[in-house]
TrEMBL record:
It holds the Pfam family SapC. It comes from Sphingopyxis macrogoltabida. This is Multidrug transporter. It comes from the Bacteria.
Amino acid sequence: MTHHAVLDSNSHRDLRVRANAAAELGDGVMATLTVPSEFRSVQGHFPILFRRETGRDDFTALALFGFEPAENLFLEGGRWDARYRPWSLAIQPFLIGRPASGDGPGQVHIDLDHPRIAAGGEGVRLFDAEGGPTPYLEDIAERMGDLDDGYRASGAFFAALREHDLLEPFSLEVTLDDGSLHSLVGFHIIDETKLQALDAGALARLHADGHLMPIFMALASLSQLSALVARKNRRLASG
């Protein structure tokens, strides 16, 4: 269940949220949404894969954390074991809300039924005693704005990938140290062969439109697959 409300300093003056990382707080996920403007930060830690929306031609980009549902190999107790935390995960339990028309500036909403909503004196305050936003809330608002801008701009990125047929199906079978087999299916990656075959004019247009760098970042991120396998093997070895 969710209970979304517009965040305001009067109704939510004393509200606190749990900012630590834990599966029970919403971090127990195999992957999370990322956007092209975030790829540079994501690629140094997580593989970036693409998935087609169910029943649609649209794609989304995902930062991968594990090999099976609800598996996040970057969770170590109450600690996030990476130097970066993707925006879509970091902003929970907040979200951007807009009028039904979809026009107008976004508003900060909060899910009051989210497990990150703290009880008593736990967690981090959102507002100070005078009703001003705390540094924590200011940081969250900045990340939300970045994510919202990136998501709105991502349509042009995926349109460019479709125009040049630069997404190819991807599957991966991994045999782990204990002999078990894990498979990734239903994803896409950048087709490097087709990218290399593009002529100078097409590459220049991709660069001018700001798409070439995210493409390269998504390709570079695939080197993180072997690191993710190593994390899985360490987790299995430690029981």
